[in-house]
Each structure stands twice: as structure tokens, then as C-alpha cells.
Amino acid sequence: MERLPKIVTALGAFAVVLMVVLAAGCSPKQTEVSSPGTDFRDFSLATSRPYHTPEDAVAHRDTWHNIRVNDVGIDSYLGRNATVPVGTVVIKEDFANADGAPGDFQKYLVMAKMAPGYDPDNGDWYYSVRMPDDQPVEMNGMKMEGRIPMCVGCHTRVAATDYLFGPPDSVRVER
Questions:
Q1: Which structural domain, as residue segments, surrounds residue 69?
Q2: What is the mean pLDDT of each run of 10 residues along the chain (175 residues)?
Q3: What is the dihedral angle through the alpha carbons of 144, 6, 37, 88, rounded to the nearest 10 degrees?
Q4: What is the pTM assigned to this prediction?
Q5: Which residues have C-beta within 8 Å of that of residue 136, sequence separation ≥ 6?
Q6: What is the CATH number for 87?
């Protein structure tokens, strides 16, 4: 099986490579997805301010978040469309809870909408959990990237909205 070479972490390269893979008709199961790197901070904010996930939440407990989306998907994401286009990258920045306010940047979570066939039973989403230095988080010896079972398991609850929860209405940016 031929694998595409690892892509540099620059966001522009990520988007270009994804488009090249799609245009070339490569099987999505044969591709590697690289991290968007810290260039994701150039993505459009989908939240007007950080918001807090309570301690009793199913996931991402007691943390603060900003959501950013690349140019490919921001209009669909904010427009609450049932699906977002292939190439959409959604970033959730996680910050520690510092006495009821956003604290230190802890990690970021990536969802990238892949070409049909990548993971058809789960909306063709690629997931990654990354540290501020852009390294993938490891849990029980497994790098947290690709088809992460705990991410897939939670996001299947919102399959009707293309596996995206979206931010609370109180902080959702309107376009």
C-alpha cells in the first residue's frame, strides 16, 4: 500500500495536500493527515468568546473552549447546515479552568472532514488531540489521531448535524 509522504505542519500545506488527494482520487484509507500546526490560529473564530463545559459534561469536562474553523467550512458550520464540505477543519482549543475563567492553553482537538470512504459509518471524520507543541496526545500507548473510538462514539450522537455539536448559541458567531 502506497502512503502519501508526511506533510509539513503548515496549515496551507494541509489544505493543499487534502485537495490534491481528492483530485487525484486516492483512496482516503491510504492517506495520512498531518496536523494543521499552530497556523490554525488564522482560522475564523466560530465563538465570540471562550465558553465553559461544566464538570458533569459527557466529554471535555470543566474546561474552556474556543472553536475555530477553516475557510472551507466556516460558512456551513456557522450556517448550521446539515453537512459541511470535504476539507473542513474544525479546531477546539482547550483551556484550563482557572477559578471560573479561561486559564492556560492545554491542548487542541482537530476534526477534519475527509473524502467519502475514509470512515463512511461515522461521517468520514478524522480526529486528533494535540498538545500546544503540536505533538499528538498519547493515551494508553495509542496516539490520539485518526478514528479515535471515544471521539467517534460521542459524535455519533449528533450524526444528523454531520457529527458536529457546535458551540452554545450564547457564544456562536453570527454571519
A1: 40-161
A2: 31 35 36 60 93 77 90 91 91 92 93 95 95 90 91 93 92 89
A3: -80
A4: 0.79
A5: 35, 128, 129, 130, 143, 144, 145
A6: 3.50.70.20
